[in-house]
Structures are given as structure tokens and as C-alpha cells.
Amino acid sequence: MKVLKISLLTGVVLVLAGCSANEPTMNTEKKIVTLDNGKRYSVPVGSIYTKAPVTDKAIQRYTQLGVKGCQNGDITWEEERVADNINEVMRRGKIKGEGIAIYKKAAKEGHIGCSSPLSDK
């Protein structure tokens, strides 16, 4: 228990120190991926992402599920846990109702989304 308290206290101190610094800090929750189309995207670590820019149909579908801001040229991503849950539902053949509910919940909680290409500037 003492180790847990020390770890938590250290974590809080590091977060507060990072938030008070004027220098930009690296976001370790994101990673940069370069796809075959030569464009670079920032997606969450451990996420599953599309290998090509989304279609208008995919953008419309993601918008219906609650993901905001998808544009032409973006790729979609979902946390691995969401992908695993969807695959489990698909194996049971219940993708329509249960799968849509999983995606809507994931969209609301920010566990799926779109990533726009990063500029080279």
C-alpha cells in the first residue's frame, strides 16, 4: 500500500510539473504512422487504423455513430479493445444492434475517431 501511495504521489507531481511548464510536451498517447500513400497521421498508441483514406460512405457512417470531424483524406482508428469487442460480436452474428451500440459508446468516450494527415511544416 505504501508503494502505491508513493507511486500515485510521484505521478501527481509529474503531471503538475508537466502542466505548469511553458515548453510544449510530447504526447505519449499518440504515435505517428506513415501509410503507403506517403502521408503521416497521428493515432493513439495501440489502436487499429485504416490503411487508406476513408470514403464518403465511411465518413457518413462514422458521423451517424457519433464521431465528429471526419473529412476526406482522413483515416479512421479504434482502440484495440473496441476492435476486439466488435470482432467478438461479429463471431456471434449480432453486429447490427450490439455492434452499433459498441461503436456509439466508443465514439462518445473517444475510443474511436478519425485522424487527418499531418502537415510537413
Large-scale geometry: globular
pLDDT average, as an integer?
76
Share in β-strands: 15-25%
> What is the end-to-end distance?
48 Å
Low-confidence segments, given as residue ranges, are: 1-28
Rg value: 18 Å
Order of helices and strands: HEEEHEHHE
Number of strands: 5
Lateral strand order in the biggest sheet: 3-4-5
Helix content: 40-55%
Structural class: alpha+beta
Number of domains: 1
Number of helices: 4
Main sheet properties? 3 strands, antiparallel
Please explain how this structure is put together.
This protein is an alpha+beta fold and 121 residues long. It has one domain. 47% of the residues lie in helices and 18% in strands. A hairpin with a 5-residue loop joins strand 1 and strand 2. Helix 3 packs antiparallel against helix 4. It is globular, with a radius of gyration of 18 Å.
Concise structural overview:
By secondary structure, this protein is an alpha+beta fold. The chain has one domain. It has helices spanning about 1-20, 55-65, 80-90, 95-110, and strands at about 30-35, 40-45, 45-50, 75-80, 110-115.
Features:
121 residues; alpha+beta; two-stranded antiparallel ribbon; three-stranded antiparallel β-sheet; single chain
